[in-house]
Design a protein that fits this description.
single chain, two-stranded parallel sheet
Length: 124
Amino acid sequence: MFEIGFGELVLVFVVTLLVFGPNKIPGLVRDIGFWVGRFRGFVSGVRSEMETELRKHDEWKRLIEEQAEIVKRNVVDTDNPTQPNAVPIESKLLEMPTPAALPTDSDTHVTPAATPPAKTHDQT
């Protein structure tokens, strides 16, 4: 991916040695290792969460497809009922409960907000 050879690694080490000095290099390597480990842990956590969410998505998709198949088996076209236990969709829709009536404008008793008086040039 990066194609770094031995010569490039030696050059990076020499520049690091000149910039930080021989006394700070062990601490620098330790800090880099710590942050690389934390980054790997973060990536691992994100990967596991993504896999969990994808499994949930697949499960939901499977359940929805199963429900669609059940509906297809139980509801038929009224012109061509070929299944003995199937019920026409019109009768299913008539059996559904109707939602409660929505409130109308007369039910809400909303009063319009008073508009503020217009300012004249000497009220500024």
